[in-house]
C-alpha cells in the first residue's frame, strides 16, 4: 500500500486564506523532528500542516506554528503504529487519554490490539479496544482533535471523519474543502 504526503502552509487569514504546497520530504521520526522540518520549510511563524495518508487505512495531520508544540492527530492509531511513520504516533494519547501501542503476536505481527481494556485500564498490551455490537473497533483515533479548531475544523468534525470515513483520502479532501486547500491537495495527488 502506498503513502501520500503533502505539506501545506496558509497565506493570508480568515476567508482570504489561500494555501500553498511546501516542497519538503516527510521523513519518519518523532513529532519534534517532524516539527523542526516543518518549521524550517516556511519563513515565518505561520501554521504549517502536513497531511499523511496510508492508502485505505488511515490519515494523519501534523501541525506546527512558530514555537508552538507540534500537534498530531491520526484516524487509526493501531494501523498507523505498524507504518513507516510509527515513531510519529508512538506516544500519542488515545481517545481514552492513554497511549496507544499495537500489541504483537508471537511472530511479531500486529494483532489489532491497543493495550487498553474495555474499561480503559492499561493491560501490558494484551486487551482489545472497545468494540461496538457489530464487532467494529471504536475510537482508534489518537492525538489532538483540536489541532484545526482555530482554522475552522472542530474536534467533533475531525473525530467524525476519523471514525466514519472508510477512505482516508475522502476524509482529507473534506477537511481540505472546509479549510480551503482541497484543490491544492488534489493537485498533488
Automatic annotation (TrEMBL):
Positions with biased composition (Acidic residues): 106-126
Stretch list, region Disordered: 96-141
InterPro entries: tRNA_Adeno_NH3ase_assoc_put
Name the UniProt record assigns to this protein: tRNA adenosine deaminase-associated protein
